Amino acid sequence: MSEQKTTRDQPSLNVGKLIRWIAGILLLALIGWRVYQTAFIEGSYGPDTWMRFIIAGLIIGGMYSLIAIGYTLVYGILFMINFAHGEVMMLGAFGGYFIFELLASIKAPSVSDPNMNFLNAYPVISVLLAFIVGTVVSAVAGLLLERIAYRPLRKAPRLVPLISAIGASIFLQNAAQLLFGPQRRQYINPVILWRGTGWSIPVGDTTVLLTYTGTLSLVLSALLMIGLFLVVQKTRLGRSMRAVAENKQAAALMGIDVDDVIGKTFIISGVLAGAAGVMWGIHNGLFNHYVGFLPGIKAFTAAVLGGIGNIPGAMMGGMLLGLLESVGPAALGIDFQLKDVIAFTILILVLIFRPSGLLGEALSEEKV
Amino acid sequence: MMLEVENLNVYYGAIHALKGISFHLEEGEIVALIGANGAGKSTSLNTISGLLRANPGKIVFEGEDISQTPPQDVVMKGIIQVPEGRKIFARMTVMENLEMGAYTQPDRVKFEENLEAVYFRFPRLKERQKQLGGTLSGGEQQMLAMARGLMGNPRLLLLDEPSMGLAPILVEQIFEIIQSINEQGTSILLVEQNAQMALSIADRGYVLETGKTVLEGSGQELLHNPLVEEAYLGG
Ligand SMILES: Nc1ncnc2c1ncn2[C@@H]1O[C@H](COP(=O)(O)OP(=O)(O)O)[C@@H](O)[C@H]1O
Ligand SMILES: [Mg+2]
Fold it and tell me: What does the alpha-carbon distance between residue A316 and residue B120 come to, in Å, rounded to a whole number?
C-alpha cells in the first residue's frame, strides 16, 4: 500500500495536478470576488438575513449529516454506495406521517375541549411515537435491502451491487407511489409544533425566527450524532463494526459474526435516515414518494465531501453542505432556485480535486 | 485425538487448492505444516477456521465434526487462528485489538487475568496500549497478533507464518514464545516456510506440496530427511 501511495505522489505526474490547482484557484478567486461584491458592495442583505440563512442551513445540514452517516457506514463496511439510502429516508417520512394521521384521528376529549384529539392532547408522546415508528420502518427497510439486494451479491464484482442499489432505489420509489399515491401529503403537526411558530431572536433592529420544528430537528440531529459516536467508539458493537470495516477476515477470526454486524450497520443507518425523514416532514411539511431523492444525493455529496467511510467527515460534510447551499446563493448573488446546483458543483469539485474528501485518508487500493 | 483432518478438498472457484489433505494433532502437541509458497498451508488453516468450506472433507475437533461450523463458532470452541500477515486492526489501539481478541469471552475477570498474562509475555504491548496498531513495528505487530489470539483462551492455536518478514533475532524470540505458550498447555498447529525453525520445535510435522500431504514424521525425522533437506532447508 505504502508503495502505491508514493508512486501516486510522484512529481512526474504533476502537470495534470498543476492544471487542476490553477483551475481551482481561479475558481475560488471568482467565487471570492462574487461574494465580496454581493456581501459588501451591493450590500443587499442585512445581518438578520444572513442569520436566517445560517439557521436554515444548519437545520437542513443536520438532516443531511444523519443521512450521510448511513452512506459512510455502509461504504466503510462493504465499499459500496447504497444508492437506495434516500428511499430508506423516504419510508421513514411516511412512517411518521401516518402516525400523526392516526393519532389525530383518535379522540381524547377533555373538559375544556370536547373535540381534542390524541395528537394535541399528548404532543410529546405523539412526536416521540412518530420518530420511533419512522425509525423502525427505515431500519427494517435498510435491513431488508441488505438481505435481499446486497447480500446475495457480496462476492460479485463491485459494479453489480451498485446496479442492484439503483434498481432497489427505483423499486422503492415506485412501490411507495403505488401504495401511497403520487400526491403530495402534508405533515399535520401538533399545534405546539406548527411550522412558522418559534422564538423571535432580536438581531439589530429586527428579529429572526427560530422555529420550534427547526430547533427540534437540530437538537435531535446533534443528539443522534453524539449517540452514534458513542456507540461506534465505546461499545462492543461499535468495536466489532470498526473491526469488520477494517478487515472482514480478521474480524471473523476474532469470533465476530460478520453478516450480523453488516445487518446491524444497515439497521443503524436506517434509524438515522428514518429520523431525518420524520424531521423533514415535521419541519418542511410537504412530501411524497420523491422526498428521499434530493436529500439522498445531497447527503451522498456530504459524505464524499467529508471523506467517504469517515464518520466525523460525514457529520461535518452534512452541516457544511447545508450551510453552503443555504448561504451560497445569497453570497454568490445567484438565483435561490440554483441552490441544488451548488451541491452538485461541490460534488464534482471534490471528486476532481480531492476525491478522498476533506477528512478522508488517501483511498487504499482495496477500497478504490 | 484433538484435531483430525481427513481428505480435505478445497476449491477457489475452479482452482483445486487442496487435493485431499489429511493430518492430525494430539492434545498438547506442536504440529508443523511446512511447504513452499502456494502449497495450501493457509488454505488448510482457513478451512479449519471455517472461512472456507471443505468439499469434500472432514474436520473433527474433540470428537465433533466442525467442517460446516461458521467461523465465530469455531472460535467459541477454542480454535483460534493468528493469520498470515498478522492482520491486526491498524486503526484501533493496541488495547482495542486485545479487546477484539477477547470478543467471544464475556468474563471480565478472566479478561483482566489474560490481559495481565499477555502484558507479562509481551511487555512492549503494555507500553503501547494506547497507540494505534498501525503505528507498531513489524515485530510488535506480530506480537500483538499473537497476544490478540491468546486473549480468546485458545485450546488450539493456529499460527500462520508467524516469522514472516521478521529479523532473525525476532524470529528466534517468536519461536521461544511459541514454545512457552505450548508448555503452558495450548496445542499448536504451526504453518511455516521457515522449515528449519518450525521442525526444530515441533513434535511432529507434515510436508505439503501442491495441495497434498507428501511426507509426515516427527520434527527431528523430517529435519534430517534428505528430501526435506533438499527442498526446504536449502541443503
Ligand atoms: N483467494 C484465492 N483465490 C484463488 N486462489 C487462491 C486464493 N488463495 C489461495 N489460492 C491458491 O490456492 C493455492 C494454495 O494457496 P495458499 O493456501 O495460500 O498457500 P500457502 O499458504 O501454502 O502459501 C495456491 O495455488 C494459491 O494460488
Ligand atoms: Mg500462506
Answer: 42
Say if residue A338's pLDDT is above 90.
Answer: no
Residue B205 to residue B221: CA distance in whole angstroms: 9
Q: Is the CB of residue B57 less than 8 Å from the CB of residue B43?
A: no
User: Which atom of ligand 1 lies at the shortest distance from residue B161's CA?
Assistant: 21
More confident residue, A354 or A107: A107
Count of all residues that appear for chain A in the document: 368
What's the CATH class of domain A53-367?
mainly alpha
Per DSSP bridges, beta strands B212-218 and B64-65 are: unpaired
At A39, the pLDDT band (50, 70, 90 cuts) reads low
Are B41 and B33 within 8 A, CB to CB?
yes
Task: Find the Cα–Cα–Cα–Cα dihedral A264, A269, A270, A275, rounded to 10°.
Answer: 130
Residue B48, helix vs strand vs coil = helix
Residue A42 has pLDDT above 70, yes or no: no
Asked if A256 is an interface residue toward chain B (Cβ–Cβ < 8 A), one would say yes
Q: Cell digits for A298?
A: 445531497
pTM: 0.89
What is the spatial distance between Cα B82 and Cα A359, in angstroms, rounded to a whole number? 32
Q: Is the dihedral of CA A78, A84, A90, A96 positive or negative?
A: negative
- Measured in angstroms, the CA of B128 and the nearest CA of chain A are apart by 19
Q: What is the DSSP letter of A117?
A: B
Enter the ipTM: 0.94
Q: What is the pLDDT of residues A180-217, one digit of tens each?
A: 999 999 999 999 999 999 999 998 888 999 999 999 99
Query: Is the minimum CB–CB distance between A2 and chain B shorter than 8 Å?
Result: no
How many other CB atoms are there within 10 angstroms of residue A192's CB atom? Answer: 11
Residue in A with minimal Cα distance to B98: A254
Tens of pLDDT, residues B173-207: 999 999 999 999 999 999 998 888 999 999 999 99
Assign residue A170 a region (left: φ > 0; alpha: ψ between -120 and 50; beta: otherwise).
alpha
Q: What is the DSSP letter of A255?
A: T
**Domain ranges, ordered by start, for chain A:** 1-43, 53-367
Distance CA B214, CA B38 (A): 15
* pLDDT computed for residue A137 by the predictor: 98
Domain boundaries along the sequence of chain B: 1-68+188-235
Planar angle of CA A222, A208, A315, nearest 5 degrees: 20
Give the pLDDT of residue A47: 81
What CATH code is assigned to B1-68+188-235?
Answer: 3.40.50.300
> Nearest by CB to A256, which of B50, B72, B83?
B72
Number of Cβ atoms within 10 Å of the Cβ of A345: 17
Q: Which of A232, A254, A260, A359 to mutate to test the interface with B (most CBs of B within 10 A)?
A: A254
